[in-house]
Amino acid sequence: MLKPTEKIWHNGKFIAWDDAHIHVLAHVTSYGSSVFEGIRCYETKNGPAIFRLDRHVRRLLDSAKIYRMDVDFTADALSAAMLELVRINRMRSCYIRPIVMRGYGDVGVLPLNVPVQTYIACWEWGKYLGEEALSHGVDVCVSSWTRIAPNTLPALAKAGANYMNSQLIRMEAHINGYAEGIALDEAGYVSEGSGENIFVVRDGKIHTPPLGASVLPGITRDTIIELAASLGISVVETLVPREMLYIADEVFFTGTAAEITPIRSVDRITVGKGSRGPVAEKLQKAFFAIIDGHAEDQFGWLTPVAKTEQPVGV
Ligand SMILES: Cc1ncc(COP(=O)(O)O)c(C=O)c1O
After folding, report:
1. How many Å lie between the centroid of ligand 1 and the Cα of residue 162?
2. SS3 content of the chain, % helix, strand, coil (to 5)
3. Which residues is 270 bridged to in the sheet?
4. Ligand 1: which of 197, 211, 291 to mutate, judged by most atoms within 8 Å of the beta carbon?
5. Which of 53, 220, 224, 261 to mutate to test the pocket of ligand 1 (most atoms within 8 A of CB)?
6. Closest Cα to atom 6 of ligand 1
7. What is the rounded distance in angstroms from the CA atom of residue 263 to the CA atom of residue 238?
8. Residue 310, pLDDT score
9. Which residues are catalytic?
10. 32 vs 306 pLDDT, higher one
11. pLDDT tens, position by position, 43-69
12. Ligand 1, atom 4, residue with closest C-alpha
């Protein structure tokens, strides 16, 4: 269950957690008119640090732009607000959720006169698919629901409305006893999980669906592509046929929530040896070493939360 923290940031001010209400007739409740982010702040050996803050803020503003939402805050202001929020709530690690939404005003579908509201909340959060999932892997299915098709709901935007599709995928998987569902795109190629991107390994080479396959441009996806390259593992962004999931040596999910979660079976067909494979393990090791602060942050992925003194004269 969600554990409240003290403050939530709203349009430039910190308000009490319990005061962060919206009206039942806000545009967002009827029409799903919101864009948002999911960001992790990790507890590193040097204190809390936000993972890939700049990329998340950029994707938030991209999502808003796609939906013609004018955000009153710059990328720098939003980044500063997130850092301050984590400090104010005295979190050692947490999940950060900025939401830009269309608020209360008109109730028609045309949203252009409805005020845009920006909120940022944070709270404590553990492993998304369970601690065990990271080491043993999860059992998943291919969903009977297709991922949102191109030119219907834009997949590059992380919009609230997209998650109605994700909910259908996730509920179906859950009810049928699977940890997660994988959606195919409109053409029948592998797209992504309800809240994760997907990677497939065969003969030492990693494949992942391209952005044109209705995937969210995942920040962890990008992280894995960079990390794999640095480890000398080749990654190709290419269409992935469904049956590739069954004959792969390894399949794994990536996401802010799921981090790097191995998949041990798809549709009850065992993937590889039915446990975490060597490529996923190698990537996990490199990833977790950076986010807990034990390896050097060579890519500059972590933004420390602690205030650093600005040197005089800079
Ligand atoms: C549909 C979907 N795909 C992929 C991802 C992974 O994206 P990221 O790595 O930026 O969290 C998420 C999570 O935000 C998601 O909701």
Report:
1. 11
2. 30, 30, 40
3. 265
4. 197
5. 220
6. 255
7. 19
8. 57
9. 158
10. 32
11. 998 899 999 999 999 999 999 999 999
12. 196
Q: Is 234 exposed, middle or buried (0-12, 13-18, 19+ CB in 10 A)?
A: exposed
Q: Are 158 and 199 in contact (CB under 8 A)?
A: no
Angle at 135 between CA 132 and CA 137, to 5 degrees: 80
- Residue for token pair 């396959």: 213
Can you tell me the mean pLDDT for 110-138? Answer: 90
Task: Tell me the average pLDDT across 199-217.
Answer: 97
What is the DSSP code (8-state) at residue 3? -
Identify the residue whose tokens are 């923290």: 5
Look at the pTM and tell me if it is higher than 0.85.
yes
Question: Collapsing DSSP states into helix, strand and coil, what is residue 38?
Answer: coil
Output DSSP code: residue 261: E
The answer to whether residue 314 scores a pLDDT higher than 50 is: no
Instruction: Please give all residues whose beta carbon lies within 6 A of any atom in ligand 1, as ranges.
Output: 38, 166, 192, 195-197, 216, 218-221, 254-256
- 8-24 confidence digits (pLDDT tens): 999 999 999 999 999 99
Instruction: In whole angstroms, give the CA distance from residue 173 to residue 266.
Output: 11
DSSP at 280: H
Alpha-helix runs per DSSP H in 44-109: 53-66, 75-88
For the chain, the first-to-last Cα distance in angstroms comes to 45
Q: With a cut of 80, say whether residue 126 has pLDDT above it.
A: no
**CA-to-CA distance for 260 and 240, rounded, in angstroms?**
19
Gap from CA of 90 to ligand 1 centroid (Å): 26
Q: Which residue from 207, 187, 205, 188 is spatially nearest to 197, judged by alpha carbons?
A: 207
